[in-house]
Amino acid sequence: MGSGSSKRAVSPKSAQSTTNSPQTVQAEEFTEDKSQRVVLVTGCSSGIGLALAVLLSHDADKRFKVYATMRNLVKKDALLEKCSGVVGDLLNIKELDVCSDESVKAVVAEIVEKEGRIDVLVNNAGIGLFCVPECATTDAISKVFEPNVYGLMRMTNAVIPHMKKQRAGHVVNIGSVLGVVGTPFSEIYCASKFAVEGYAEAMAPVLGKFNIKTTIIEPGPVATNFASNAKAIRDEVDISGTDEQTQALLKSALTKMYHSLTNYGQTPEEIAELTKKALLLKRPPLRLQTNSKYRPDQVAAKLSDPSGNKIVELSTSYFFPEQ
After folding, report:
1. Catalytic residue from among 189, 258, 294, 318
2. What family is it from (predicted)?
C-alpha cells in the first residue's frame, strides 16, 4: 500500500490471489506491513460504510487513517457517536456526493494535498430498487445507476491517477451477489451491480500492472436500512397498470426477499470485518462472497472459479503477453 516504497512493493503478477475468502486463509497470507494506510470510504452515514469506518478507525495497530464520507453531514451523528475518541486523528468525516464531479474532485484533491496519497478506495455508496421493471421511469432507474455505477466510476476515475503515480493501491467495490446471479424484480439493481462486476474485472489486469489491487465484496442480504431506501424508490413506481399475475409474482418475490434477510442476513459489522481482512491480505481476491449460505448453488453454477482470479490471469496474458 502507501506510496509504493520497496517495503510495500509486490510483483504485479502476484497482485491478485486465488483465495476466495479471508475466512479460509492462513496467517502467513496476511501482510506484516504495519504502516498506516489512507482509506477513503463513501456512503458512511449508515450500513456497511458506517461499520467499516468505525472498525478501521479503531484498529489496534492504527494501520488505517480513514476519510469517511457521506452525501449529507446531517447524518454524521451515528458515526460521531461511535468514533468520538478518534475523530480528527484516525477518522475524518467529509461531505461528498458521488453524483457530483465537483464534490468528488474537491474531496480527493483535499485528501491528496493533506496526506500525499490515497492507499485504499472503498466504493460503498449505493441504493437498491425492487419493482416491476417495465414500470420504472427513467428517473427511478437513474436514481439507482447514478450512485451505483456512475458515482462508483466517478470516484475511481478521480483516485486511480494518484494510485498509478504511487504504483500502489487497492480499489474495493462493495458489490452484491446480485451482481453475480440475477433476481426477479431486482433487474435494475442487478444491472447496476453487474455493471460494477464487468467494470472491475476489466480494469483489474491494467491496474495490476501498477501494483493496484482490485476487490469486489459480494454480500448477500444485509440487515441495513438499504431495504427501506429501496422500498422508498419502489413506492415512487406506479404499478397500478400492471397485470394481476405480475403483481402476485412481485408480492411472492418480496416475501422471499424478506425471508432471506431474516434467515440468511448478515450484519454490516460482519461485512466490515471481512472487508478489513481483505485489505490486509498480501494477495486479495478479485471477488469475495461473504455469505456461503445465500444461494450457494446458483453462485457455484455461475462461477466455476468463485474468486474470479482466473479470468484476471487469462485477460492479463491475452492483452499483455510481452509485459
Report:
1. 189
2. Belongs to the short-chain dehydrogenases/reductases (SDR) family.
